[in-house]
Design brief:
Helix content is 55%, strand content 7%. The chain contains 4 helices and 2 strands, in the order E-E-H-H-H-H. It has a two-stranded antiparallel ribbon with strand order 1-2. Helix 2 runs antiparallel to helix 3 and helix 2 runs parallel beside helix 4 (107-122). The chain starts with a strand and ends in an 11-residue tail after the last helix.
């Protein structure tokens, strides 16, 4: 990359584009602090597909789990209304996340969803949900 000046419409210089190595030399000469550039972990091109499937599976699994547990609770002789409401709320929250297409446009967002809702599927009982019977 060559060093070049960026000018406005009148031809006045407003900025200068410099490659990183040249900037480091200038910064060292002027004793300016040089911030370390964070390294970005390169992602596998297939991560998007994998995470889309995983997030979809986790969200649909939680919806099914919450619906099944809600139905079981309602079939009891005296259902715990608080448990039913928490399960209904969970099901609605996850269904909304599943419908929101923005959640599937970012690898980071899909990882957040998997991290947030995945443990619910792994738990064998409703203690994870804060539901006690």
């Amino acid at each position: 990359m060559k060093t070049q000046l960026v000018t406005d419409y009148s031809g006045e210089p407003v900025a200068m584009v410099v490659d990183y190595k040249a900037w480091v030399k200038i910064a060292e000469q002027l004793h300016l602090p040089i911030e370390k550039i964070p390294t970005v972990k390169e992602r596998n091109p297939l991560d998007w597909y994998k995470l889309t499937e995983m997030a979809n599976s986790v969200l649909n699994g939680v919806i099914a789990y919450a619906s099944r547990e809600r139905r079981k609770e309602l079939s009891r002789i005296s259902p715990d209304i608080e448990v039913v409401e928490k399960l209904t709320s969970l099901r609605n929250e996850v269904a909304e996340a599943n419908r929101n297409s923005l959640n599937f446009r970012s690898l980071e967002r899909m990882e957040e969803l998997i991290e947030k809702y995945g443990p619910i599927l792994r738990s064998e009982n409703s203690q994870h949900l804060g539901l006690s019977r």
